[in-house]
Amino acid sequence: METSSSSGEWTRMSTRRLIQFLARKLFVFCLLSLLILSVLLFVRVKYNTIPESSGLFRASGLQTFFKHNINCSAIYDLDPVEVGKSLTIRRKKMVEDKDESLMSLTGNCSFFTQVRGYDDVCISEEERDFPLAYSLVVHKNAWMVERLIRATYSPNNIYCIHYDQKSSAHFVSAMQGLSHCLPNVFIASKREAVFYASISRLKADLNCLSDLLRSEVKWKYVVNLCGQDFPLKSNIELVSELRELNGSNMLETSRPSQLKRQRFTFHYELKDISFEYQKLPVKTQQAKSPPPHGIEMFIGNAYFVLSREFVLHLNSSDVVRDFLAWSEDTYSPDEHFWATVVRLPGVPGEVPRSLPDITDLMSKTRLVKWHYLEESLYPPCTGEHVRSVCIFGAAEMHWLLNYGHWFANKFDPKVDPILIQCLEEKLEEKRRLFQAKTILTCRKG
């Protein structure tokens, strides 16, 4: 009996020791698991404070521009969580997209075209038979210029880049790199030092138009853009809509107010000023003679979509040449030159003077939000204002893509990088959707 009792006691003690041993092991395991989980949560919280996994898109060590981890479809649908995430990203200090990085990337053309998707572009028969020309008057932010070209790109289009003579050396090198790597992109043969509201801005476009007419590409329409513009239509959509113009032009052209008339009824002189523009046309008390050839004046903006026939006419017309010379000493001649010339009797795609005003919201060329018209003509700006013009925010993407315009202004990656990234994604999505309905030709770009 004692032996049996001792054996039972030993068994109970062994069982207790085993339980205690297992309990200690379980405690250590749980503690270790808790520590690992804490570390993982710390890492997750830490890295989620970085602008939603934003980071430089790198390829083989060459830096391109910032990409952000964001759901663009949700942004388009105005999902409050994703829009809120875009606002958080905007508040973070972004690493600036350097001109030098584009300059370096275009140093290896085959790699550049591959990374940016120029090397194998598919186009529809409709696009192939309807090439477009672009006049890009730019002066800074090389990556935005490249992204603008990429968003409008078709290998049968032709692109003229006019960079400001005052541009930085790195920006100029980046533009030259683009023209070197892309066979349908070239630098304007004559370049101006562009000053705000002066004739130089108009001449920059005219320089590109002259070069584009000499190109072997027999483009159908020409579009002029600046570095803060961005398309709202893919190339195949734009071609489809431009075909419907049937030779007419698309631009703003309205009768001038008395205040706007002062821009061309007095002589202006370009003078040095202590301001960001360096020089500005300053009004004098010297009255100008009336416009030559009895031309009736109209006003608009600097941006247009013009037919090839219209541009050919400009290049050969004595009336247009005299009007350009007369406009030399006016204020912001680009804002009355195109609007007036398109109303001249007999020009290709003429807008008859008898027709009512064509405002900027009626013309599909370019969508701009003015601060003083927000909430009456369009929803409020969700980005920032610069001189009464809205720099768009991501929450405006749905409105921008559905208003009906072809291009919009202004965009700035320093104000809202998400909007530009999501527009790129949405345009690519629309391009594929439209091209899926047609026969494609794929060739090296």
Automatic annotation (TrEMBL):
<dbReference type="GO" id="GO:0000139">
    <property type="term" value="C:Golgi membrane"/>
</dbReference>
<comment type="pathway">
    <text>Protein modification; protein glycosylation.</text>
</comment>
<protein>
    <submittedName>
        <fullName>Beta-1,3-galactosyl-O-glycosyl-glycoprotein beta-1,6-N-acetylglucosaminyltransferase 4</fullName>
    </submittedName>
</protein>
<keyword id="KW-0808">Transferase</keyword>
<feature type="transmembrane region" description="Helical">
    <location>
        <begin position="21"/>
        <end position="43"/>
    </location>
</feature>
<keyword id="KW-0472">Membrane</keyword>
<keyword id="KW-0812">Transmembrane</keyword>
<dbReference type="Pfam" id="PF02485">
    <property type="entry name" value="Branch"/>
</dbReference>
<keyword id="KW-0328">Glycosyltransferase</keyword>
<dbReference type="InterPro" id="IPR003406">
    <property type="entry name" value="Glyco_trans_14"/>
</dbReference>
<keyword id="KW-1133">Transmembrane helix</keyword>
<keyword id="KW-0735">Signal-anchor</keyword>
<keyword id="KW-0325">Glycoprotein</keyword>
<dbReference type="GO" id="GO:0008375">
    <property type="term" value="F:acetylglucosaminyltransferase activity"/>
</dbReference>
<comment type="similarity">
    <text>Belongs to the glycosyltransferase 14 family.</text>
</comment>
